[in-house]
């Protein structure tokens, strides 16, 4: 099992999560972060750090997010220190379905 970053992170990227990960699992894309499932040791300390509850334990319902984590962690750089959230993070924090809404062409992420 691993932890996964889900839709709530999209267009927000608060990045509080990256400061606590003991094994630098987080990778940064333009719109969101992902967790590398191969390096995550399942400690769970990142989960309560996210102000929008974007981080969840892997489950069958979240399979798409686990797959995205696996794929994009191979392509995006590691992020190890928090930074400013995206400019409109507060505007987007309560929105749902952001990945489908804003990332029209997933190939742009690759
Ligand atoms: Fe890092 Fe632990 Fe979160 Fe995995 S569960 S991403 S090891 S802080
Ligand atoms: Fe995203 Fe939450 Fe981390 S918004 S960057 S998963 S603190």
Task: Tell me what you see in this structure.
- This protein is of the alpha+beta class.
- The protein has one domain (3-85): Alpha-Beta Plaits (2-Layer Sandwich).
- The chain has helices at 63-72, 89-92, 98-102; strands at residues 3-5, 26-28, 33-35, 55-57.
- The strands form two sheets. The protein has a two-stranded antiparallel sheet with strand order 1-4.
- A hairpin with a 4-residue loop joins strand 2 (26-28) and strand 3 (33-35).
- The radius of gyration is 12 Å and the shape is globular.
- FE3-S4 cluster binds next to loops.
Give a brief rundown of this model.
By secondary structure, the protein is α+β, with helices and mostly antiparallel strands.
Number of H/I helices: 3
Quickly count the domains: 1
Please trace the helix and strand order, writing H or E for each element. Answer: EEEEHHH
End-to-end span in angstroms?
A: 24 Å
SS-based structural class? alpha+beta
- Coarse shape: globular
> Which second-level CATH architecture applies?
2-Layer Sandwich
* CATH third-level topology: Alpha-Beta Plaits
- Average of the residue pLDDT scores: 94
CATH class: Alpha Beta
Low-confidence stretches: none
Features of the shown structure:
single chain, 110 residues, Alpha-Beta Plaits, two-stranded antiparallel sheet, binds iron/sulfur cluster, binds FE3-S4 cluster
Set out the fold topology.
Blueprint: E1 3-5, E2 26-28, E3 33-35, E4 55-57, H1 63-72, H2 89-92, H3 98-102
Antiparallel strand pairs: 1-4, 2-3
The structure holds iron/sulfur cluster and FE3-S4 cluster.
């Amino acid at each position: 099992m691993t932890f996964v970053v889900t839709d709530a992170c999209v267009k927000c990227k608060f990045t509080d999560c990256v400061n606590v990960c003991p094994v630098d699992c987080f990778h940064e894309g333009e719109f969101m972060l992902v967790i590398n499932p191969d390096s995550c040791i399942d400690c769970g300390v990142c989960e309560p750090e996210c102000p929008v509850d974007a981080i969840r334990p892997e489950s069958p319902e979240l399979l798409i997010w686990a797959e995205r984590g696996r794929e994009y962690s191979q392509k995006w750089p590691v992020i190890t220190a928090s930074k400013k959230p995206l400019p409109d993070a507060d505007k987007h924090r309560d929105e749902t379905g952001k990945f489908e809404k804003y990332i029209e062409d997933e190939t742009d992420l690759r």
